[in-house]
Fold:
Amino acid sequence: MKTLKGTENINLSSVDQIPSGLMGRYEFLMNRPTQRIREITEKILEPLKIIPKQYRILATIHFEGPSSQRAIGEMLKIDRATMVMLLDDLEEKGVTIREDYPKDRRYYLIHLTSSGKEVFQKAQKLIIKAEEEFLKPLTKMERQNLHKYLSKLFHSIPNISTHNGQRQGLK
Structure:
């Protein structure tokens, strides 16, 4: 079986060691694949010297245009201190640049540099290949259904709130 370059050293031996009581739990069933795709993504991005959170920052700027550090952090649910650290690193690498925000000098707009655009394009291709490999066990229809169901859950998250310890908003 052919594997994506950079993923051949990831340990799969623990995959079959699953506590029997967890296989019926959605949290577990969603978490394990999430951990796996995160491991694959971290590994394939290593040659570009970025981590998945930084890829998501680059993707946000690429798709949404220059944005404030705060806006990007809020969209990606990254706390302010972590955003500063991630952006400082990206700026040191010449991938992003902070420029004054014309409407409010207290803020900066984060832009991709030409190098940042190249890094994003390379990362995007690697991510797509990793996702394709990760989803190989599923048929095209199963992939479409998985995407549909995950999207539905994703879009319901803002509507889920806690009231007196009880979850609200799920119907």
Q: What stands out?
A: The chain has a mean pLDDT of 86. The two ends are 42 Å apart (CA to CA).
